Amino acid sequence: MSQKQRKINQALGHKALNMYQIESRHLRQSSELITFQPPEQAAYGHKPAKIYVEEENLLARIWKIDFERKVGCMNFASPMEPGGGFLMGYDGQEETICRNSFLYPELKKFNQSFYELNRKVPNQGYFSPNVIYSNQVKVLRDQSEGKILPYRRFIDFASVSAPNITYMKLRQHPLDFRRIQADLHEKILRTIRMFKNNEVEILILGAFGCGVSQNDPYLVAQTFKQVLDRPEFLGVFKEVYFPILNNKSALNIFNRVLVTPITKQEA
């Protein structure tokens, strides 16, 4: 990324923070740290969600969804810094969300209970399984990241950190793929159950941990499939989207693992 683009990203982020300061008294957004696996609850029906894997920008997908639907988006959270490299103008899924919404102030609330804990106890690169669940966070811009949009768009975000294979390799920790899969399963299941408990209808997920953390896209896609195929989620979500950009390998693998022939025909 060029220095010029980083400065542009920083300016966008500072604009979002300034707007938050102005609007914070009137916002209804709130957050909680989920420190346990929510219990399984009964399904709502018999129909599985339609799953779509798209080569598209996350913000584009957010604004395409009907405003009447409650949307939940998974944020691939840095385990040690709220918003990752957002304040420095870096780019990534989390940074994109933070500079174009009011999510960052919610993440900062957990500096001690989540981020400082991960800094002190990185757990060999697995980090905490806890989820920061943020209700009704205001989203400001679409994929153009231009002007602030006049429409009111509010999203639930679940922020969770993937196991970091890069970290494990640098510190020469053993790569235990059974443990990695179990960790992914725990975090994804906790996230999806929280979306269900908060009556989310449309999910926006993605290639969780398949970028700088170097998780195997096939393993991640299979884990998402295992979780979404659980009977407890029948009739719960209408549609599930996996927007994936700048990662052709993950895009193809997620398509192969998650998208049914019927969904492909409808697309």
TrEMBL record:
Gene3D superfamilies: Leucine Aminopeptidase, subunit E, domain 1
Matching InterPro entries: CHP02452, Macro_dom-like, PARG_cat_microbial
Microbial-type PARG catalytic domain segment(s): 37-142
NCBIfam families with a match to the protein in the record: TIGR02452 family protein
Designated name of the protein: Microbial-type PARG catalytic domain-containing protein
